[in-house]
Amino acid sequence: MRPHSFSLVPVLLACLVFAGGCGNSDDDSGGGGSSGGGGSGYGSKKDDGKSKDKATASSGGSQLKLTADPGGALKFDKTSLTSKPGKTTIVLDNPSSVPHAIEVEGKGVEEEGETVQKGGVSKVTVDLKPGEYEYYCPVDGHKQAGMEGTLKVG
């Protein structure tokens, strides 16, 4: 019986090596975001559906969500956002057939997300200081048509 027990050792080791290769990877090199966003949702607050005019974010890499009008009107679903100072990502979902993007401007900040088509997501990440900022769609004529809002940071 002894000769058989030694033949099992290589098989068991092979199984352990194979099983060790499966599962969750701790490699941080493949993710974390891009220049347009990178938010993991840490500190984000889901819209409860009751407030159509305000969204509030918490500190520490907060994320604010906006949606373009699905019918094609040049407006956002919220005209006012509130955030605490620090790094904030605004995420704009575009369910409309009209292209849209998101831009934040004020207090020395001017950052623009990518223009996206229907089904796309435009993101912009900014480091905010206390005060008031403007957010809007930078696509030609959209801001002038009313696709804008106020971001209050305090």
Descriptive report:
The protein is 12% helix and 31% strand. It contains one helix and eight strands, in the order H-E-E-E-E-E-E-E-E. It is globular and about 35 Å long. Mean pLDDT is 75; it is low at 12-59.
SSE topology:
Elements: H1 2-20, E1 62-67, E2 80-83, E3 86-94, E4 103-106, E5 109-112, E6 120-128, E7 131-136, E8 148-153
Parallel strand pairs: 1-3, 2-8
Antiparallel strand pairs: 3-6, 4-5, 4-7, 7-8
Short description:
With about 150 residues, the chain is mostly beta strands. It has one helix spanning about 1-20, and strands spanning about 60-65, 80-85, 85-95, 105, 110, 120-130, 130-135, 150-154.
Biggest beta-sheet profile: 5 strands, mixed
- Backbone shape: globular
Based on secondary structure, the structural category is: mainly beta
Sheet with the most strands: spatial strand order: 2-8-7-4-5
Quaternary state of this entry equals: single chain
In total, the number of strands is: 8
Provide the succession of SSEs. HEEEEEEEE
Low-confidence stretches: 12-59
Into which percentage range does the β-strand content fall? Answer: 25-35%
Average pLDDT reading: 75
